[in-house]
Amino acid sequence: MSTALPLLVKRGLQSLLMSRWMLGYVVVFTSLSLTFSYLGILGLGTVGFRAFSGALAAVINLNLYAVPLISIITASFSIVAEREHGTLEFQLSLPITRSEFFAAKAIAIMLAISLATMLGYGLAGWYLMLVLTDADLLIFMNILASSLLMVFSFVGLGMLISAVTGNRFTALALSIAVWMFFSLIYEMLLMVSVILFRLSATDLWILMTLNPLEASRLVMIYSVDPSMSFLGELGNFLIREMGDIFLYPLIAVPLGYGFLGLILGLNHFRRSEL
Amino acid sequence: MLAVELEGVSKWFGENLALDNISMVIEEGQSVLLLGPNGAGKSTLLRCILGIIDFKGRISVLGLDVRKHGREVRRHVGYVPQNIRYQEGFSVMELVDHVSDIKGVDVFLDESLSQFRLEDMAYAKVGSLSSGMRQRLAISLALIGDPQLLILDEPFNNLDPVARNRLSELLGDMARRGKTVVVSVHTMSGLIHSFDGVAVLNGGRLVKMMKAEEVVRVARPVYKIHIRVEEGWRTYNTENLFATLKELEEGGYDVSSAWIEEPDAEELLRTIIG
């Protein structure tokens, strides 16, 4: 049986790419990426390669805050806004299934944010190409891939929020709370736990991995510095004890959050009222 | 073949019983008015028939179990919801394209829109349409793909007498072409003369199934048409609303500005239920 999924994705993508919300993200993200690249290049003459690392660190930090935030908020509005505007009944009265509707929303949001993010990266990368080597660009591509992994995990969580909440205000509040938890509070709790419970390196590593944002951060750090010396003793421990294997859970955890959010969200949406 | 078959259909919203063990059949080619006061469960029943909300019991539409084959069912059904809301950013033309693409049918835009005098609004954004225009657009969209079953939920809301007349003719035409038509109304809305049967719903229960002529014989609904003439307003009393409206239009009266006074809905229901 034919599916309406491609049509719904196309329509959703068009509508998202034309939204002011997405346009604002593109402008801010691209401007900041370009600014950091520019500042990095300015520093090359005096401090050499370290300036590039500085530019990358700024881009990584920008990613770690901006990408999850836009992903979770956009996704959390997707279903609940249709419900609040009363457009859900019309959409579902067409020959589509709830699963197709839900999947189309998620795919369209992932594509729109990925495209917007790649545009920001693309312009910054093009600018940096003027002075950097192919190896540097590979690092850049790895960071981009980690960003797309974050898009997946936070869109998944946002879709879950959208399916379970009844209005956009609650969806917004919940998505900001989740974002704050993973981007700020989790790290603070981790630091407190290290001090209070004298966590071992393995425990710390496991707890860091369980945060999709932290996991992506570690992948990005590894892309820039495969020796993981940024992380001090923990970095040495990881490389010594686990080698490259330590990367697998860092990729699996964000994917897991994304899939879990999508599955739970879809399950709830299929049973919910209009 | 049966167009619609319901067996023991019940629907709860939390603690509230919206539909209470409803069983009924609608033959293919039959036109049925679903009559009941506000809150009787008419809209909920129609949503269950479409398979867009969950319910207890069994519903089959055009021989297909709506729970298992909801998408296929909706491909053959045209539906006009009571509260019509579309994504504001869509133009009328895009909306027609969207629905025809999803239904997998070709549509001639002018032909589709001219039925309800919307051909000049093809490029207008849906958000800029008046409520009457939205209602007419909803009916045009429901007719895309020449559906086997047409379901309209309070379709006369916001329609002027000319559009009401046009809709009444169209429903009569559909019935003559062997299509099945189910229309929910809280008053007679003048449709009784062109319909085969009436199903009376009250408090979520199917109170009575009657032939239309029986309802006319028992209730003898009288409509008052107040129409503007040179010297002020003139009132016509009639039992056949649309026949009289047509006569007045042919007599050169401006029917579009007429005001129609329906018979008292509660009294009418009491008379029918007995």
Kindly describe this structure.
The complex is a heterodimer of chains A (274) and B (274). Chain A is globular, with a radius of gyration of 20 Å. Chain A has 274 residues and is an all-alpha fold. In chain A, helix 6 (134-164) packs parallel to helix 11 (247-271). The longest helix of chain A has 37 residues, at 49-85. Chain A contains 11 helices and no strands. In chain A, 85% of the residues lie in helices and 0% in strands. Chain B has 2 domains: 2-76 and 148-273, Rossmann fold (3-Layer(aba) Sandwich), CATH 3.40.50; 87-144, no CATH class. In chain B, 32% of the residues lie in helices and 30% in strands. Chain B has helices at 42-50, 70-75, 92-103, 109-114, 131-142, 161-176, 212-219, 241-250, 265-273; strands at residues 2-13, 16-27, 31-35, 56-61, 64-65, 77-80, 149-153, 180-185, 197-202, 205-211, 223-229, 232-238, 259-261. In chain B, the strands form 3 sheets. Chain B has a 6-stranded mixed sheet, with helices on both faces. Chain B has a 4-stranded antiparallel sheet with strand order 2-1-4-5. In chain B, strands 12-11-13 form a 3-stranded antiparallel sheet. Chain B is globular and about 60 Å long. Chain A binds chain B through residues 1-2, 4, 7-8, 11, 15, 18, 85-87, 89-90, 92-97, 271, 273-274, and chain B through 13, 47, 50, 52-54, 70-72, 74-75, 77, 79, 81, 83-87, 89, 98-99, 101-104, 138.
